[in-house]
Write a structure and sequence with these properties.
Layout: E1 3-9, H1 14-28, E2 36-41, H2 49-60, E3 64-69, E4 73-75, E5 78-80, E6 86-92, E7 98-108, E8 111-115, E9 125-131, H3 138-148, E10 152-158, E11 170-172, E12 175-177, E13 181-186, E14 192-197, E15 200-202, E16 207-213, E17 216-220, H4 225-234, H5 238-246, E18 249-253, E19 266-274, E20 281-283, E21 292-298, H6 300-312, E22 324-330, H7 334-338, H8 343-352, E23 357-362, E24 365-369, E25 372-376, E26 380-385
Parallel strand pairs: 2-3, 9-10, 22-23
Antiparallel strand pairs: 1-6, 2-6, 3-11, 4-5, 4-23, 7-8, 7-13, 9-13, 10-24, 11-12, 14-26, 15-21, 16-17, 16-21, 17-20, 18-19, 18-21, 19-20, 22-26, 24-25
Helix pairs in contact: 1-2, 6-8
Length: about 375
């Protein structure tokens, strides 16, 4: 039977924090060696990150250790958004189920080249991926994976930092790097269930895109999008109109065969611009003619209900066996969205009971929606292990 453990230390000294986490993990695993350890460290531990991860690998004797620095980390039901913190998740599946991955990207005349993916790597199972937000083309990599590795589940997030001189570091085993991506490939014997909560709800009605150019939408059902939007907003109550003023999003329907659309049927993207003269809008992704879109707003209540609904609806949550979880939540969530600490982590524990959980606040979250993998924002992406 698989065995999971997690640990959180708030000690400001990196070596003391690593020792505290290692002790708690070894106790939680009953002294067994884990297949995998995933390390998340706050910016306070950046300078010692290499020694910290190497020390944890030695103490735990884990087959694979991956890690990332982050603006904030998650340990158990706690989200530490400020102050020193180190959190580690460890999993024991009986050995031989985890394979380290180290990727890098280089520009070419045709676009880019990704190095590091082994030819004999499994085409199914799960890839947990931690990436640098400025040097690795995660969106393009996911597009390639969707086309060439349709049976592989991808979960993870982009490293994040804090302050004007924020540094993002990644590690895989004893290799620490400031670019590219690291990860672990788990074979298909490891049971992983993905939960992706985008935290938005639709407003108004859906429209068919009748004219567009890449990410610019010129017509919705034959009329300029800004005209459609003004009509939608005019019918909203004062509360929703205030949410529109705070930030508007566009949901793109993933499966056009669905008749009645629900929140989970959309890939939510930011509305990043508008042209008053033409009425066109710019969306944070390519939108094609014939696709169905609907305007969305984000608020704490909707995000809370969606995460609860998705976690409660998982197969993992209904099992009596031990479970574990990794949480990749956006830096725009946490206290910024909910007005109180620990929301996403505490919600997972409320739904699943006391669960070994670790995670980080991300500059972008990776997870599947509608059978394909995307890079999200303002999202909680949860990998549930059983």
């Amino acid at each position: 039977m698989p065995n999971f453990a997690s640990a959180l230390s708030l000690h400001p000294n990196s070596f003391e924090a690593a020792a505290e986490c290692a002790g708690d993990l070894l106790e939680g695993l009953g002294g067994e060696r884990p297949d995998l350890a995933v390390v998340f460290a706050s910016p306070h531990h950046v300078d010692a990150f290499g020694d910290l991860t190497a020390g944890l690998r030695k103490l735990l004797e884990a087959d694979v250790v991956i890690g990332s620095t982050a603006a904030g980390v998650v340990g158990g039901p706690h989200e530490i958004e400020d102050g020193p913190a180190l959190t580690v998740f460890a999993a024991d599946w009986g050995g031989g189920h985890a394979r380290p991955v180290a990727l890098d990207s280089f520009p070419t005349t045709d676009g880019f080249r990704i190095d590091g993916w082994a030819d004999d790597a499994s085409a199914d199972g799960t890839l947990l991926l931690l990436a640098d937000p400025t040097t690795f083309p995660v969106g393009d990599f996911l597009h390639l994976a969707n086309g060439h590795l349709p049976d592989l589940t991808l979960m993870g997030g982009l490293a994040s930092g804090s302050g004007p001189d924020a540094r993002c570091l990644l590690s895989v085993d004893n290799d620490v790097r400031d670019r590219g991506a690291v990860g672990v490939l788990l074979d298909s014997a490891v049971q992983v269930e993905a939960v992706v909560s985008q935290g938005c709800r639709p407003i108004g009605q859906p429209f068919t895109v009748t004219r567009s150019e890449r990410n610019v939408v010129h017509e919705l059902a034959g009329r300029p999008p800004l005209e459609r939007l003004r009509e939608v907003v005019a019918d909203l109550d004062d509360t929703d109109q205030e949410l529109v003023r705070r930030g508007l999003h566009v949901g793109v329907v993933i499966d056009e065969h669905i008749v009645d659309f629900r929140p989970g049927d959309f890939l939510v993207r930011n509305l990043i611009g508008a042209d008053e003269s033409s009425g066109a809008i710019a969306v944070g992704d390519i939108v094609e003619i014939g696709q169905t879109v609907q305007f969305h707003v984000r608020d704490a209540d909707s995000a809370d209900r969606e995460l609860q609904r998705l976690i409660a609806g998982t197969e993992t949550g209904t099992r009596s066996a031990d479970i574990g979880a990794l949480l990749f939540t956006c830096t725009g969530r946490g206290q910024r969205l909910f007005g109180r600490p620990h929301h996403d982590a505490a919600t997972i524990e409320e739904c699943l009971g006391r669960t070994p959980l670790a995670g980080m606040f991300c500059a972008g979250e990776i997870g599947p929606v509608g059978g394909r993998h995307f890079l999200h924002g303002y999202t909680a992406s949860v990998a549930l292990f059983s």
